[in-house]
Every structure is written in structure tokens, then in C-alpha cells.
Amino acid sequence: MTQEKHEADVIVVGGGPAGSVLAWALAREGVRTVLLERARFPREKVCGDYVDPRGLRVLQAVGCLEEMDRFKSAPITHTTTFVEAERLYEGPIPFYGMHGDLAPHGYTIPREQLDAVMLEAAARAGAVVHEGTAVTELDAGSGGVAVTARRRQRTARYAAHLIAGADGANSFVARSQGLPAADPRFTVVAQRCYAAVASPGSEAATELFFDESSFPGYGWMFPGPSGLVNLGVGLLSEARQRFDVHMPTVFSTFVEQLRRHHPRCGELELASKPIGGTVRTYGGAGRNYFDGGVLVGDAGGFADPMTGEGITQGMESALLAGPVIVAALEAGDFGAARLAGYETAFRAYFDPSMVFLDFCAAVMRNRHFARPWLKVMARGCELAQTDEEFAVTSSSYFGGLEVRPTAILGQVWLRSLQEALLAWPRLISGTADAAARRHRASPAELLEWQAALARSMLSDPLWHMRWTLDIQARWARVLETAAGGARDRRAEGLLAR
Questions:
Q1: How confident is the model at residue 497 (pLDDT cuts 50, 70, 90)?
Q2: How confident is the model at residue 438, as a pLDDT?
Q3: Ranges for all domains in the chain classified under CATH 3.50.50.60
Q4: pLDDT digit string (tens) for 206-249?
Q5: How far apart, in whole angstroms, are the C-alpha atoms of residue 115 and residue 117?
Q6: Separation of alpha carbons 402 and 392, rounded Å
Q7: What are the DSSP calls for 366-378, one per residue?
Q8: Which of 221, 217, 219, 220 is nearest to 243 (CA)?
């Protein structure tokens, strides 16, 4: 059988945003880079397709944003939040437009086009791209890397000094190095399709949907090009397993609820077959380096713990890995000790925001608390609708550009304490109209938290104990990170460094 042989300085496995950005960054530094992608582009990818202002900055630097003009949506500046099918917030995305060097909007760009254009950008920078190439064997160590792959029905062999796994949540590279498999506590399963709905309003807006059937998780509807929307729902993998949740059923229920309750979705028609996928969130990010290589993007678990967004985070992880790889090549040292600088870099960059977001996600992992949490969320949406400062601060935990844990907790706890203290006086005095009382704390709601706690403890005591300990451990990390005085630098980005 004919064999191909290739040599490079670095092999990048996976041609999604993280892999393409890393290959682009390395090639620009004169590093001989070969990128192996098992699919042939363009190809579909399960994703919300949303690229936030930070991601747009990277795409601009890579030189491919203008090429996507015909694929991207109108600029997205607004958002709408529904809780149990009731619209409770509608307006500008609170934290957009606050940083002068960032676009005051986002775009949805279908991954079928986004990934293909980015892969082309990596090739233009000088990376050698081999599509339709599936890695079957990997031998990585401090002395170098050897890869065997299937390419064009032939066996191809690659030799390099280093390898970067950018091959997704089920990374072959990670598994080959004995790194931990995806932990269901930090893995989100999703199902999405494209759909046709009635014409949007004057402002392009993301729409988020929270209800008991998708807790802990949410549904989304993002405007896209060609008059279609990206429609999907995501759920924490742990909850899906524990409660035997069938994702296609969750998705179909979500679609039917939209048809019944959403003003633009009465005639909603699916324009593609629903497909499923997984992402790994930052709570499960481990070492992400080993003798001979590193992991970036979903392979390393860099998705936002609260939103599941991973495009921007994956590209950022690649930009952090690039200088470490270049330094290792210059030193001629490919061992794990040299590559440990990657973890130092990504922890310094991501921890100030992601550790807190991971704590929030851990608190909300318990499905028994779905109903009281949804009531809290409903109350928060109503407050955000009338209080701009509260909207900017408290909503930053869900996709924000500058996460400030102390400010968020101060706002939320202060309001929560105020609501709790006023619950009984309001009931006794009969103050506030019926509409306002719907989402205000009441004695019954306070009892509902106690009932949810009891259900959790009785239904699975061992899981409940582990969950409680996990929350305590993650809160300790929040305190440790805060004590270090580090602030969220992600609004500033990495490209100017």
C-alpha cells in the first residue's frame, strides 16, 4: 500500500476555529505547520454560530472577517430573554459598546462557512492543510511526535517536534495521551437546526429561552443570513444522564413551545435536520499539556461554563498556546515542563472570569432547584429591564465582556436580601399590584427552596453530598482567585501583546 510521508515542526489536529487560528499564528512566525482535518470543508458543525465582539476582533486580525460578508447576519445589538415562555427582558445587550476597541455588536456566521474561511486563512499564512485526513495513531514524547493517518484511502505518516490537539470535545489527541475523558459535570450536549420564521423586527436580536425542561441549560434562537435562524437547545450532560432526558424530545418540545407562544414562530418551519453535538466547559479544563504537545479549543475544555459558547474562547486558547510552542521550538525542548507555560498563560488569562462562571454553573447543576432558580431569573430580568446599572453588572455572568465577581455578587445578593426581607411585610400589608407580585420573593417561594433542597437530599444523598462539596471547592477557587487581585482581561484581548 502506498504511503505518504510528511515532516513539519508542528502538527495541528483539527481545523475548527482553534486549530485554524493556531496554525495561522504559527505559520506567521515561520513555523513549519501542517494541519490535519478529518472532514472536507465546508461541513456542518453543531453550534449557535454566534461570534461575540471579542471573536470578531480575532477574525479581523486573521484577515477573514470581510470574506464572510455574504455569510454573516446583520449586526446583532439586542437581546430578548424568555422565562417559561414569558418575555421578561427586551432591549440592547447591556455590556456591548462599553469598550472602544471592540465592535458594539456580534454576528451569527454559520460554522459551515466560518470554519472553511478560517481554514483558508491558515493556508494563506503558510500552513499546509490536509483535509479528509483522520488520525489513527499517535506517538508523542519529549523527543518528538509521530502520527499515522488515513488520507485519500492511503496511509500517511507525519513527523514533527510538537503536536496540538484541536480536535474537539472527543479529542483523539487527548485520549491518546491518557488525559481525562469529558466529565459530564462540565460537558454540554446540544441539538440545533436552521429554521424559517416570520420577519424579525427592526433590530437583529439574540433570543434566549429558559424553562424547566431544559434546566440546567437553555434554548436559543439567533438571527442568521438568508432569513433563517439558528435554533437550538443545550443541556448539561450530567442532568441528561441522571434524569434520563432524551435530547430529541427536549428539542421537539422547545420547537412546539415556540410555535405556541412566540409571536414570530406560529408558522415556524425547520429548514434542516436537527443534529447534535457536545462541548466541554472550562470547569473541566485540566493540564492541557503533555510531553510533545498541548490541547486547545474544545479539546482542552475552554467553553464558557454558563453559555456554552466556545468559538472565541477556542481562538483565544490558540493565541495563548502559540508563543509557548514557538519558545519550545527555539529552545529545542519539547517536554511537558517546558510546555507547562501554556497552563500558566491560560490560567492567568481565563481564571479571573471563568472560575467565577464555573462556580455559578456548579450551583445551578442541581435540577431539583429548577423552579426556584427560574423565578430568581425572572425577577432579575424584570430588574434589568428598568435598572441599567443592574443589567450591565448582573448580566455579565452570561456572556459578559468583563466579568467582575465582586460587583455581580454585591448586586445580586443585595437585591436578593432586600426581596427576602420584604417578602412577609408585602404579604401582610398587601402592597404591590398583582403583576409586580408575580416575580417578587414571597414566603411561599422561600419555602420552595427548602422543599427543593429536601428533594435533592432524599432522591440521591450521595450525589447531593458530592454536589455540595463540589460547590464548596469551586467557591474556594473563587476566593483564591479574587485574593490574587487579578481582573478579567478578556475585553483587552491578546492580539496587541
A1: very low
A2: 54
A3: 3-75+101-183+284-351
A4: 999 999 999 999 999 999 888 899 999 999 999 999 999 999 99
A5: 6
A6: 10
A7: -GGGHHHHHHHHH
A8: 217
Other CB atoms within 10 Å distance of the CB of residue 97: 15
Instruction: Please tell me the class of the 3-75+101-183+284-351 domain.
Output: alpha beta
How confident is the model over 432-464, as pLDDT tens digits? 555 444 555 566 777 888 899 999 999 999 999
User: Which residue carries 478529518 as its cell?
Assistant: 38
Start-end of CATH 3.30.9.10 domains in the chain: 184-280
Cα–Cα dist 478/362, whole Å = 12
184-280: CATH architecture: 2-Layer Sandwich (3.30)
CA dihedral of 12, 128, 24, 116, whole degrees rounded to 10: -90
Looking at 53-105, list the stretches that DSSP marks H as alpha helix, in order from N- to C-terminal side. 53-62
Closest by CA position to 80, among listed 258, 260, 316, 240: 258
Through-space distance between the first and last CA atoms of the chain, rounded to whole angstroms: 48
Average pLDDT on 307-334 reads 97
What confidence score (pLDDT) does residue 100 get?
81
Give the model confidence (pLDDT) of 11-29 as tens digits.
Answer: 999 999 999 999 999 999 9
User: What's the mean per-residue pLDDT of the chain?
Assistant: 90
- What gap in Å lies between CA 423 and CA 443, rounded to an integer? 6
Beta carbons within 8 Å of 251's beta carbon, 6+ residues apart: 191, 192, 232, 233, 274
Calculate Rg over the CA atoms of the chain: 23
Q: Which residue, chain included where needed, has cell 486580525?
A: 61
